[in-house]
């Protein structure tokens, strides 16, 4: 869905209905401080912050970022320092606070399960994000966009408040050299004593072979899988083999990209199907194939509880009703190199416009060892001259988009720059073009409506 589209409000609604509600943990630290700068009008963020076990961190964040009156028109957001391999303890603690707040709010008022979703490729914030979520009692961790083989061991360690370590991907390292990311919970939380609940871990995979590898070779327990096909929103796995493009410039997926569900069943762990399964018939087909259920994103993304701005929701729903909505799998938009789904109205990205290249959030930067032996950070969506000075090939920058800023704009937190607001890029699964079948004349709906539709049950009047 993007950054904070699956927010605490949506996750709480889904979990309250007996399903697994999942919050997005991507860039959640920036989301937290922007909510505070916008005044936290309902007070929910501050209520959850008051329960964080490090009150000095909460006090600092309040002093630095809270604006009771909200920002004035044209006022830019204050930024957090961009992540690096080694960060000041306070910077990590703010990340812990942010995921703690999101999970705490998602778990309020019900006994259901709550999960958190992270991107494996966004390595640097992941450990403090996970620990903060665990402090709030998160029940499930879901991770895709990479091979999260070391995450189970990290969850085991952090549940005991012990140091967790991940291999750090750095381009250009000499053969035999390895860099690491480390996170010591006791360096932040000295009073920690009682073990934390170790959440279930569900990697998101696009092939049975990867699931089998993770089940056998991860450094800890894997509890199940989300099996995601190329019709799912956000980042997609690239097609197997040589990348071939259609006449419209989209990756061509074939039989080799279909997941072997018989092989998934043989692993012996539960799995859920994602991408193209968000319908009652899709749920029935998944259960028939041996899946435990389905993961649904697209239908929930446009609910009243979700984080998309009302303008984006209205634009997409109106375009779906008028059959003017499509989805493009763009092979170059994302600086990660993964194909990325972009929602389109009349063949144009939803509400997107040209922007000036700026890199000031930096979540998708890649670590690179330069000629001097120093680790630097670059992104093909940053200013082209900057990228080239860091040793990047200028051709890598063509058509790249700043997803960090664009996805923040999707939730109404776009940075303001000299008279313009960062434009959004809306991501959705291919199923969004069939949204009209679900709407049946409505121009808005809630999470409970989606669950009733998928499970073929009638809503009980409030």
Task: Describe what you observe in this structure.
- By secondary structure, the protein is an alpha/beta fold.
- The protein has helices spanning 8-16, 28-37, 44-49, 55-65, 89-107, 123-135, 151-159, 185-188, 208-217, 261-267, 280-288, 298-301, 310-321, 384-389, 403-410, 435-439, 447-455, and strands at residues 21-24, 114-119, 140-144, 164-168, 170-171, 179-183, 200-205, 225-228, 271-274, 293-295, 325-330, 340-345, 348-349, 366-369, 375-378, 416-417, 420-421.
- The strands form 5 sheets. It has a 7-stranded parallel sheet. Strands 5-14-15 form a 3-stranded mixed sheet, with no helix packed on it.
- Strand 8 (225-228), helix 10 (261-267) and strand 9 (271-274) form a beta-alpha-beta unit.
- Helix 1 runs parallel beside helix 5 (89-107), helix 6 packs parallel to helix 7 (151-159) and helix 9 packs parallel to helix 10.
- The two termini are 28 Å apart.
Secondary-structure map with pairings?
Blueprint: H1 8-16, E1 21-24, H2 28-37, H3 44-49, H4 55-65, H5 89-107, E2 114-119, H6 123-135, E3 140-144, H7 151-159, E4 164-168, E5 170-171, E6 179-183, H8 185-188, E7 200-205, H9 208-217, E8 225-228, H10 261-267, E9 271-274, H11 280-288, E10 293-295, H12 298-301, H13 310-321, E11 325-330, E12 340-345, E13 348-349, E14 366-369, E15 375-378, H14 384-389, H15 403-410, E16 416-417, E17 420-421, H16 435-439, H17 447-455
Parallel strand pairs: 1-2, 2-3, 3-7, 5-14, 7-8, 8-9, 9-10
Antiparallel strand pairs: 4-6, 11-12, 12-13, 14-15, 16-17
Helix pairs in contact: 1-5, 2-5, 5-6, 6-7, 9-10
């Amino acid at each position: 869905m993007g950054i904070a589209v699956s927010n605490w409000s949506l996750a709480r609604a889904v979990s309250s209905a007996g399903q697994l509600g999942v919050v997005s943990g991507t860039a959640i630290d920036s989301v937290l401080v922007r909510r505070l700068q916008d005044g936290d009008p309902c007070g929910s963020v501050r209520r959850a912050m008051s329960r964080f076990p490090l009150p000095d961190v909460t006090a600092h964040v309040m002093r630095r970022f809270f604006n009771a009156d909200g920002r004035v028109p044209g006022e830019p957001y204050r930024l957090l320092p961009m992540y690096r391999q080694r960060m000041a303890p306070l910077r990590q603690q703010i990340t812990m606070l942010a995921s703690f707040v999101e999970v705490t709010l998602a778990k309020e008022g019900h006994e259901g399960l709550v999960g958190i979703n992270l991107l494996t490729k966004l390595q640097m914030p992941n450990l403090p994000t996970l620990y903060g979520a665990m402090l709030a009692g998160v029940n499930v961790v879901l991770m895709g966009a990479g091979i999260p083989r070391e995450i189970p061991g990290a969850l085991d360690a952090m549940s005991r408040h012990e140091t967790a370590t991940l291999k750090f991907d750095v381009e250009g390292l000499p053969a035999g050299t390895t860099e690491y990311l480390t996170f010591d919970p006791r360096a932040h939380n000295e009073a920690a004593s009682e073990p934390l609940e170790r959440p279930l871990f569900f990697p998101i995979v696009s092939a049975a072979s990867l699931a089998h590898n993770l089940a056998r070779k991860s450094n800890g327990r894997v509890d199940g899988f989300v099996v995601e096909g190329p019709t799912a929103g956000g980042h997609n796995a690239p097609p197997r083999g040589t990348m071939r493009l259609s006449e419209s410039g989209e990756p061509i997926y074939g039989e080799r990209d279909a997941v072997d569900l018989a092989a998934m069943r043989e692993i012996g762990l539960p799995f859920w199907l994602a991408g193209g399964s968000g319908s009652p018939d899709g749920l029935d087909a998944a259960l028939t194939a041996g899946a435990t259920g389905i993961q649904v994103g697209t239908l929930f993304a446009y609910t009243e509880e979700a984080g998309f701005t009302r303008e984006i929701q209205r634009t997409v729903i109106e375009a779906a009703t008028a059959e003017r909505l499509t989805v493009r799998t763009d092979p170059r938009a994302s600086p990660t190199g993964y194909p990325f789904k972009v929602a389109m109205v009349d063949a144009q990205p939803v509400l997107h416009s040209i922007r000036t290249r700026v890199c000031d959030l930096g979540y998708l930067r890649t670590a690179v060892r330069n000629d001097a032996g120093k680790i630097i950070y670059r992104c093909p969506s940053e200013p082209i001259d900057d990228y080239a000075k860091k040793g990047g090939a200028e051709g890598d920058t063509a058509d790249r988009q700043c997803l960090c800023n664009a996805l923040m704009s999707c939730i109404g937190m776009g940075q303001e720059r000299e008279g313009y607001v960062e434009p959004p890029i809306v991501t959705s699964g291919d199923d969004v073009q069939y949204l009209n079948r679900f709407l049946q004349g409505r121009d808005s709906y809630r999470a409970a409506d989606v669950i009733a539709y998928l499970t073929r049950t009638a809503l009980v009047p409030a």
